[in-house]
User: Fold this.
Amino acid sequence: MILNSADILSQLVKIPSVNPMGRPLSGTEFLETRLSDFLESLFKRLGLQTWRQTVHPDRDNVIAKLDGDVDTTVLLEVHQDTVPTDGMTIAPFAATRSDGRLYGRGACDVKGGMAAMLTAVSQLAAQQPKGMPTVFMACTANEEHGFTGATALTEQ
Assistant:
């Protein structure tokens, strides 16, 4: 299965993963849990070894591994959380498309990059090209307010 980057981006934006940035949790849009669940399921559908690393309660890094056939390793790292939706004048999780662009919370920072990485990993998994390195993709938690997901990843 090779993913389409525009379609996967739309799916990612529709999944709220707002970092509370130190605020009390008082809405359904907070934390990465739903996105972590989606990513774990997607990686498994792609046939990748997948695991979660708990960083905080309800905030996990999701890590996937695609085995290559050479003695080289590549790490793709991207964060799951977005900044809050304060001041947005559009529906933050509608993933609205207009004039060839997709709008919504996280479309640029960083779900667009995540969609590109997921598309590349899906293509590598489907094609298994000769000379491919082992690829890890780490989707980390809490980048927007503390970097604790990336820090936990380096400690593993």
Notes: The longest strand covers residues 49-56. The chain has a mean pLDDT of 96. The first helix runs from residue 5 to 13. DSSP finds four helices and six strands in the chain.
